[in-house]
């Protein structure tokens, strides 16, 4: 796509200079890139999940025919600029791409990036082609701001700094607020602030960093609600040798105990609930920065010293293994803190002479100097899988160098929220190219995600991407000069480049797919080192793996970032409204690559469509099951499978990886300790763990005998346990019948009550009379009815059966309950709304839309008369662990069937109400593209 020329090129009075020769790859001279696609007009109408009203409408928008309805809606509603209904409003994807690419091309032309006008035109056309064909995407701030009257903020990731004085702390509050106002996120390390165990210069006791976190948390909680584009996100880091580290570790787990207590007392602690304001530290991800010395102390069970921030002396010691256990236990309880491995981070740091890397962005993929930012872009890997199932090495390499060129140009024209961030970013020019659709690529080519072959493919592609990126960075240095801080850090930067190249040499391929990729990567690293020795490099950092939330939907990616496939069956939006269930397109391709005949593949696909998994699918050999393992479902990828994939790609990235390792609810604290330890041993830079349902439910009871006299023999007592008595319904009793449709399956619920109120029987009809399904439902109805008559509370069933996931599922015909994850999920939500009082339903998280609306309007939801279910606000309580102050033990939560996956307590989209799905360490909405903090 490009090559460097030594020919002169004018630079507006700065004399002759070299420029880039751009080579056409996807475009043809004389043909505009938009003419390579068929375009059509579409209507975008997005409705409110609460009441069905239209919250966005733009008719007649123009998009390429291959773009999905979902991608069209997300781009039109989030990225088009101008007031809707005015002539200034953008209405075509061509206008959007032209607005952005025009600025890049003009800036590159003005600053000497191109050898000639013809090269500038080639750059312009190739970039437009790549964007229109969904080969890659810039991060969201580019689409929001570039080419508009707003400041051209192009970065999604920021790192701030805080010193040990009140002025700096107040500046932190202000700078973070400005970043949140723009819809981005920031991270900060608070370890410079003296601990609560040290004195102020005046002689008084210091507050410590945790106390200042309260003010920043309140600020973030206020500003996020006004964000026009997405929720604000933040990261708070504390070094493991800080004297307040124990308080920091348990900060959020203690708040989780408070949340449960408030909920049990009847307070509204749902997502966005009125009473959540009293809960602190909920707007940040917390991470502990652990050193190699600490991890070695954990291995040996040694004491570890905590050092004064003012004198540098050790003022206390802790048992390293015990502190590590408390980190894992807190994460077991509430998913925080995560861990950042300082030794690995600093070992791969290209600018140590300028300063240490002390913090990260909110999702931990960007790690760099304080007061800096990073511009991100992600490549759609599946676009480079050819029809013959080989990887387009040449096309991928050329696209990488095109994207790196564009990203570097963006730093030249970009604006920044603070002067310090602008100065650092312009001096070090950090970039973050990454990719999406790795999981889909692996499945399509018949590779299990958790396999040597899958990891080899991922590692080779990542190595090629970073090698090509840094090779292009060296070429840019020869054209427009290296970054300002390069000479000061020259030896360190070269050392890190050699480490990347050495890791590539150590990479062992196991299959035919990655062999040519690795061969190309080896050539790229050799050329990178040669050019870098001559010119230096233009960018201090080049690559990382971001979560690719919204832009992943924009590119119609099946999987985001480095994640595996989410599930084997998804819902596809249709033109004109509605949706249909489809089996992932990677499955037929995978079956073909695995050697199955067309007839066998059709039968397997049909089985997956009906069951959502491949277990016992006709003709499918059990040894191939692992190819179809997903993030959730009956066969889900084990936690260490995620860690091993991260370890395979980490040596080939400048930054880190945005990914949360999901673990099942029944995992123990020891399991999390093992994961955190293996993350260090395998060379990761950062790691976060999330245990399913850890943020919901009652604490576990660790009851002990009280008042027992030691030394006395205990006499066993026989206690007569009263048997429950069945309370039968009278011959004549009130009843109510409700018809329903869930995912196209129709049925009826007949609920009979006692005359003095109280549900006493439930009969559920589904399927044809005499069918297996109808018989099972009859038996289930009888069991539930008898249990109700023996005194089992309805709320117990609501707690257990809501959120149960199986087909049929999806849209319902009940205006009260818009979506259901299964027929059973729908039935017990309906029964809760019809037969439980508001207080009990609120405790269970089952609220009606009218009650939610009343709450938003500041009214009393308990007075709402219309019981209209809001599925988007439901969340079933689950059990939670005992206080970490209890005697050290291995708590174990009740087992949840793996088929329920790891998203039972995922947040609900604040825009459209759809349950979000994991995207790295954040969440993304498939309905409207909104994210919980990352682009």
Automatic annotation (TrEMBL):
GO terms for molecular function: ribonucleoside-diphosphate reductase activity, thioredoxin disulfide as acceptor. Residues 9-23 have a biased composition (Basic residues). Residues 884-893 have a biased composition (Basic and acidic residues). Residues 1-23, 869-897 are annotated as: Disordered. CDD domains: RNR_II_dimer. Residues 874-883 have a biased composition (Low complexity). Catalyzes the reduction of ribonucleotides to deoxyribonucleotides. May function to provide a pool of deoxyribonucleotide precursors for DNA repair during oxygen limitation and/or for immediate growth after restoration of oxygen. This is Vitamin B12-dependent ribonucleotide reductase. It comes from the Bacteria. Keywords: Cobalamin, Cobalt, Disulfide bond, DNA synthesis, Nucleotide-binding, Oxidoreductase. Residues 44-134 form the Ribonucleotide reductase class II vitamin B12-dependent N-terminal domain. Belongs to the ribonucleoside diphosphate reductase class-2 family. Residues 730-833 form the TSCPD domain. InterPro entries: RdRp_reductase_class-2, RNR_2_N, RNR_lg_C, RNR_NrdJ/NrdZ, TSCPD_dom. Residues 155-690 form the Ribonucleotide reductase large subunit C-terminal domain. Its cofactor is adenosylcob(III)alamin. It catalyses: a 2'-deoxyribonucleoside 5'-diphosphate + [thioredoxin]-disulfide + H2O = a ribonucleoside 5'-diphosphate + [thioredoxin]-dithiol. Its EC number is 1.17.4.1.
